[in-house]
Amino acid sequence: MAKDRKDNILDRGQGNSDDMEHPFPAPSKEADNFSTDAEAPKETGNRGCCSRGEETPEEENDNGEEPGHHTDRDCMDDLESEIKCLHEQLEIKDAQIAELIVRAKRIQGEFDNYRKRTIKEKEEAAHFAAADLIQKLLPVFDNFERAVTAGQDACQGETFAVGIEMIFKQLLEVLMEEGLKPVPSIGEQFDPKWHEAVMRVENSECEENTVIEEVQKGYILNDRVIRPAMVKVSFKN
Q1: How far is Cα 137 from Cα 133, in angstroms, rounded to an integer?
Q2: d(CA 191, CA 89)
Q3: DSSP β-bridge partners for residue 229
Q4: Which of 33, 42, 97, 171 has the most crowded Cβ, counting Cβ within 10 A?
Q5: What pLDDT was estimated at residue 12?
Q6: pLDDT < 50 stretches in the chain
Q7: pTM for the whole thing?
Q8: Residue ranges per domain, the chain?
Q9: What is the pLDDT of residues 112-157, one digit of tens each?
Q10: What is 180-237's CATH superfamily?
Q11: What CA–CA distance (Å, rounded) separates 194 from 229?
């Protein structure tokens, strides 16, 4: 009995040993497929990461920045370009301003010259306003002078001569107050600005072109010759 029990135990132990060699049941085909499918996405995901990692350096620019992002260098280039453009515009404006300043100065100079010329013309117009009147009085003045000379030569009518002489002096004073002066003639060198030669007379005692006789007086009004003196001029053989 004991031997039989021992043999049964040994037989059961062998059977259990077979069972112990495989404590877990063998996986089925469906389990194999399921494990394969479950691991597939992991490999695909790793491959995708690797591919993106390989493509990333190609998409980065030289500075290591991703495309589509402005770098500091790009900003500096844009600022320098804008500053250069502003400098060019400023130079153009400066040139235009300088041209306008030159034009304004030229116009101002022309206006100053016009103003001075206008003032001078007005002064001259006021200065010579009586010129026409005096020119009309000159023949009267000449007649008075002739009458005085004739009365003195004839030695008659001394009272008349004295009266005429007084009138002559009075008229001369009035005219001189207005700026009238006689043109110096006798003994002066002939000057075409002041004299009008009506005859040349040979005279060895005087220098060439000397006024030796006055035919008609000339007059100056405020330093302007309004009538040249008619004179005779000497010459030598």
Answers
A1: 6
A2: 65
A3: 195
A4: 171
A5: 53
A6: 1-2, 9-10, 14-24, 29-31, 33-60
A7: 0.43
A8: 89-127, 130-178, 180-237
A9: 999 999 998 888 887 777 777 788 788 888 877 877 777 666 556 6
A10: Head domain of nucleotide exchange factor GrpE (2.30.22.10)
A11: 6
